[in-house]
Amino acid sequence: MCLAVPGKLISINHQDGNLLMGKVSFGGIVKDVCLDFVPEVQPGEYVLVHVGFALIVINESEAQNTLDMLSEIIIADESYDKFQTTRTRGL
Question: What is the pTM of this model?
Fold first, then answer.
């Protein structure tokens, strides 16, 4: 399974030769991302990023919906882990 995570483009710059690169914020964690697949993207817009490459530009609403779903998965996973720990201790 592949996972692409939404992030907000903070700035655009060129590095590593002619690659179009940018700084993308993922909830406050900023990473360098290759923007070659989305050369039309502008700072302030959201992109879906997979293994360091922005694949598509998405709107803010779509980005927030995806982030909300990821949060729900994390909460469900943490709840499951707590359940398993409690269940194991009871045996």
Answer: 0.75
Distance CA 25, CA 69 (A): 18
CA atoms 34, 39, 42, 45: torsion sign: negative
pLDDT at 87 over 60: yes
Q: Which residues contact 41 (CB under 8 A, 6 or more apart)?
A: 9, 12, 22, 35, 47, 54, 57
Q: Distance between CA 26 and CA 49 in Å, rounded?
A: 10
- In order of their start, the domains of the chain are 5-90 (2.30.30.140)
pLDDT by residue (tens digit) across 3-57? Answer: 889 999 999 987 667 889 999 999 889 999 999 999 999 999 999 999 999 999 9
Q: CB of 52 within 8 A of CB of 42?
A: no
* Token pair 């700084």: residue: 23
